[in-house]
Write a structure and sequence with these properties.
InterPro entries: DPD_II (IPR028261), FAD/NAD-bd_sf (IPR036188), FAD/NAD-binding_dom (IPR023753), GltD-like (IPR006006), Helical_ferredxn (IPR009051). The chain is α/β, with parallel strands linked by helices and 484 residues long. The chain has 3 domains: 2-135, Fumarate Reductase Iron-sulfur Protein, Chain B, domain 2 (Orthogonal Bundle); 150-243 and 404-483, FAD/NAD(P)-binding domain; 248-398, FAD/NAD(P)-binding domain (3-Layer(bba) Sandwich). It has helices at 2-5, 22-25, 38-45, 55-58, 66-74, 78-86, 92-98, 110-113, 121-135, 158-169, 186-189, 198-210, 227-233, 262-274, 279-282, 300-311, 332-340, 407-410, 443-446, 451-472, 479-483; strands at 150-154, 173-177, 214-216, 236-239, 245-246, 259-261, 292-296, 316-320, 344-346, 349-355, 362-373, 379-392, 395-398, 402-403, 438-440. The strands form 4 sheets. It has a 5-stranded parallel sheet with strand order 3-2-1-4-15, with helices on both faces. A 5-stranded parallel sheet has the order 6-13-7-8-9. A 3-stranded antiparallel sheet has the order 10-11-12, with no helix packed on it. β1, α10 (158-169) and β2 (173-177) form a beta-alpha-beta unit. The protein starts with a helix and ends with a helix. Residues 475-484 have low confidence and may be disordered.
């Protein structure tokens, strides 16, 4: 049966779910493509070659059992496919939407190398779990036998939520603290709806809350409790705050009104979509409507910004990036989507200065050329003398990536050890910081990275924390419940 259902990549072509026309999708923040019909999902899954060494799984940070759930999908065994997909990932339908599959699983698909076009893994993954939610196959989170031990998780992004889920299933009391008024971190506030509609995240949060995980919204460490007080309240802590400090540009005029940070811009847009009062949006400070917009950067955050600006009704949208298309860190699929929606990419260009005092009026830039490879292995950009040019701009969005905030100072914990990059220093065998019982995972350890890596880190740290608590052997009163 399996052999008959698979290996159809020679006679069946690659077909992603159809995208809405660019001019239509640019008018709203809904996802740009619908999911497969069942027959189409089965057909596309059947293209898998079931190769002996599944490079798709090898290059997936979660090592998802991709060929196996593709085979089950092709055979019409969707519930089994979901259960297998769900066994390695806490958020498969989210990864199916926002993972850069072109750089991970699909980019390493064997039939892609043979010229037949990769299996559409992400779209099938999205289809499987969306179907599971509709059919009621997604089981409630059920806590294991109570251990009498309490865990505090600081940060409600993908790493923190993943760890919280596994630790609750192990029987621990789990409290999640986050400074925002909604759980989900960048899944809620940093990623636009056209890539990840927010009800998809909300239903995951509700499942965790229904499973007994306690969420403390609007909670800031040092303001509402010190790190030491949280250590006293819980038997173990996890720091999973992510990295939120925007990397700076050093150039004349960078402080002019209208030169803004990418995350401020994206959060304002997402808050507006929730119906929140957003004064910075209403004033126009974080609203691209009618403006000439220049986004600086070449990662996925930059792509989120340019595509958001299009939907806000910008007059023009340009993306300024210092390398070429082949060397940009963002998803090539996102670049293609942006170009279809009218974004102009200005490759091999870097800002030199920003015009305007009362408000930004333009970006002075210079052309770049690629020199020798740098430490990352990519050819380093260097200015091309005499190639200066200017772009009109009423709104400039800086999207050059993120660094860690100064957690020791922010948390009032001077003894908390950090690396020279500002990330938290951990013992990589245990994922524990230099403080006993205080663990760390996700971007705050590895630096700005992908959601799928955060989920992997959350899964791993949950195992380490459970082992730590088991070895500790302490059956304590539910201190966190008393404090709540």
């Amino acid at each position: 049966m399996a052999e008959q259902a698979m290996l159809k990549f020679v006679g069946t072509g690659q077909a992603y779910p159809e995208k809405r026309a660019a001019e239509l999708r640019a008018e709203d923040f809904e996802e740009i493509a619908k999911r497969y019909e069942t027959a189409k999902a089965e057909e596309q899954a059947s293209r898998c070659s079931q190769c002996g060494v599944p490079y798709c799984s090898v290059h997936c940070p979660l090592h998802n059992h991709i060929p196996d759930w593709l085979r089950l999908t092709a055979e019409g065994r969707l519930r089994e496919a979901f259960e297998l997909s769900n066994s390695t990932s806490t958020m498969p339908e989210i990864c199916g939407r926002i993972c850069p599959q072109d750089r991970l699983c699909e980019g390493n698909c064997v039939i892609e190398f043979s010229g037949h076009g990769a299996v559409t893994i992400g779209s099938v993954e999205k289809f499987i779990t969306d179907t599971a939610w509709e059919e009621g196959w997604v089981e409630p989170l059920v806590a294991g036998k109570a251990t009498g031990q309490s865990i505090g998780v600081i940060g409600a992004g993908p790493a923190g939520l993943t760890a919280a889920e596994y630790l609750r299933a192990a029987g621990h009391e789990v409290h999640v603290y986050d400074r925002h008024d909604r759980m989900g971190g960048l899944l809620v506030y940093g990623i636009p709806g056209f890539k990840l509609e927010k009800p998809i995240v909300k239903r995951r949060i509700k499942r965790l809350e229904d499973g007994g995980i306690v969420f403390h919204r609007g909670f800031e460490v040092s303001r509402d409790a010190t790190l030491e007080q949280l250590r006293e309240r819980h038997d173990a802590l996890l720091i999973a705050t992510g990295v939120y400090k925007a990397r700076a540009i050093k150039a004349p005029g960078v402080g002019a009104p209208g030169v803004v940070e990418s995350l401020d811009y994206l959060i304002a847009s997402n808050r507006k979509s929730f119906g929140d009062a957003v004064p910075e949006f209403e004033s126009g400070a974080l609203n691209a409507a009618g403006k000439n917009v220049v986004v600086i950067g070449g990662g996925d955050t930059a792509m989120d910004c340019v595509r958001t600006a299009v939907r806000q009704g910008a007059k023009s949208v340009k993306c300024l990036y210092r390398r070429d298309r082949a060397n940009m860190p963002g998803s090539q699929n996102e670049v293609k989507n942006a170009e279809e929606e009218g974004v102009e990419f200005v490759w091999l260009s870097a800002p030199e200065a920003f015009d305007g005092t009362e408000a930004v009026s333009g970006v002075r830039a210079t052309k770049m050329r690629l020199g020798q490879a740098d430490a990352s292995g990519r050819r380093a950009p260097e200015p091309d003398p005499g190639s200066e040019f200017r772009l009109d701009a009423d709104l400039v969005i800086k999207a050059l990536g993120f660094d860690p905030e100064e957690l020791p100072r922010l948390f009032g914990a001077a003894d908390l050890s950090v690396t020279r990059w500002g990330t938290l220093r951990v013992d990589h065998k245990s994922m524990m910081t230099n403080m006993d019982g205080v663990f760390a995972a996700g971007d705050i350890v590895r630096g700005a990275s992908l959601v799928v890596w955060a989920i992997r880190d959350g899964r791993d740290v949950a195992d380490h924390m459970h082992s730590y608590l088991k070895a500790k052997g302490k059956v304590a009163p539910a201190k966190a419940l008393e404090a709540a």
